[in-house]
Amino acid sequence: MPVVHLRKGKDDNILRFHPWIFSGAIATIDGVPAEGDLVRVVNKEGEFRAIGHYQSGSIMVRILSFTDRDIDREFYRERIAAAYEMRKSLQLEREDNNTYRLVHGEGDGLPGLVIDKYASTAIVQAHSIGMHNIREMLAQIIVEVIPEVKNVFYKSTGTLPNRAGLQVEDQYLIGNDDVALGTENGLQFKVDWLKGQKTGFFIDQRDNRMLLEHYAKGRKVLNMFCYTGGFSCYAMRGGAELVHSVDSSSKAISLVEKNMEINFPDAKNHAAYAEDAFHFLDNMTENYDLIILDPPAFAKHRSAIHNALQGYRRLNAKAFEKIPHGGILFTFSCSQAVSREQFRLAVFTAAAQSKRNVRILHQLTQPIDHPVNIYHPEGEYLKGLVLYVE
Ligand code: SAH
Fold first, then answer.
1. Residue 167's pLDDT is what?
2. pTM of this prediction?
3. How far apart (Å, rounded) are the C-alpha atoms in residues 260 and 228?
4. Ligand 1 pocket check: which of 198, 227, 382 to mutate, most ligand atoms within 8 Å of Cβ?
């Protein structure tokens, strides 16, 4: 196995169990690892420090183990079984809930791997070439370890780096599922993992949707950036007076309509609009007193933070301008590069600009099936605020 030698003192992050090794920490490599190969990592003095997947780029090694052990089928089996056991013990697998994230990368000790579960189908998403290379084995392990899973779909064309020779195809590795309905807290959602965004559904908003349901009664709800209508369905169940869903993608809008139809076939108080958010907020005439803003990640990289913060400020300012006295705003950022403090400052600036009196009711984050490895704070990406606006 190729050996990565670190520069002097550059094993300090590893001693704190951080799972990434950046290119700048590496002095030399013995052997020529191919993309995705396992490598051993040693410090300047040659002492073993870690073992992980090699990949050229800024993050060069994604660490799988800090102890010297075989990274074999049994290793992956143990980690996936542990991730599943955790979800089961936390009551995520229930008759009224079969939709959750099974493996959340570094949060589950498997950097580069995401597995989402919808009813009897698991969607495997590789973010590293190391995980891509072992996709068939991972699929076999998943159906062995998780009795509820019968089908495994591989979806990584959007998440892997473009490297010459990498053959990536979105496809079923095991079984086939054309029903594609996931149940979340008793609501049913059509999940389009073939063509939809991410693995087809934004599982990470589950707890925040539950909270929204609690506030929806009698309110006029605007679900901005609705995607497949998760928040909209919870608002409806919570007794909203009306629910309007907006997304710029017309495919998303047809899925919202489908999901509304599945859960509330008789509802007359829902409407969905395929429109740009800023355009809609500028031109709306309805007096929405519960607004959800859940935009896509405005900053995909550190370099884009400044523009992202301007985007969050502008968007939230529009909501503050329009929301009536006593209105409630659920506002989110899913940009990993934007910190909780930066997001809060952007929303604060928007509030000040609108001269509204604003109180924070809740500070939100991602749910328990998206756990953050305490040694990898970068894993915390979802930030939200629930605000009471006077
Ligand atoms: N709240 C959703 C997830 C939102 S993802 C849920 O709970 O499932 C972000 C969504 O914003 C995507 O569906 C994307 O199509 C939409 N979007 C991106 N840019 C937009 C814009 N300018 N106006 C409206 N929608 C936009």
1. 84
2. 0.96
3. 9
4. 227
